[in-house]
Give the backbone structure.
Amino acid sequence: MTFFDIKEAIIVGFFLAFMIGPVFFMLIQTSILKGFRAAFSFDLGVVLGDVVFLLIAYFGSRFVLMKIKDNPMLFIFGGLILVVYGLYSFLNQKQKAIIQDETLVVIPKTNYVNLFVKGFLLNFINIGVLGFWLGMIVVYGAKFQMDEPKIFWFFTTVLLSYLATDVGKILLAKKLKDKMKPTTVYKMKRVIGIVLMVFGLALVSKGIFPKEHIPLKGVEKRLENFEKS
């Protein structure tokens, strides 16, 4: 890869880290409530989800693309999971007692494996992420003429840049930890629940109205052109 390819990969990874979605909000929340190691464990799970999607996109791009186009139930399934998870976060009453005692300090046990799995699943159920990596494979696979070493190092650089940017976000969010009052924490968790439900409903709408919301025709044409070349 050239210097400009590496620079482009770093820029892609940087902006990818600021794509607003459920993972973005959960990462910030985990950093504030549980600290750096917990948020980093969560983020590693997210990155693993991206790696799996990248492999699926690379080795079965056309097959997966057609499956998504012909089976919008995948959007509905992933969206409903997000809605249920968000609803649970919103209705969870375990921390409601904290509001009644501002001096109460709750130090929950941190299970890093669970956080890793949660990060992976939260990213993996969002089928829109797969659509993003499919588009990236089409664009940069064609650019590098399917040169495997170039593709490997480009997307490795993207993911490393993404992870490094997330570490910066985690450290920045961690500074807010000491300023978070129990009532603020409780309210923030309810807001996160609403955000997750909104993103879940957005995914469900893509499954219900696929022709209006799933922009796959352009990607499919580029795949066909790429296969002919």
In short: Residues 3-228 form one domain. The first helix runs from residue 3 to 16. Confidence is low (pLDDT under 50) at residues 97-107, 212-219. Residues 58 and 137 are 6 Å apart (CA to CA).
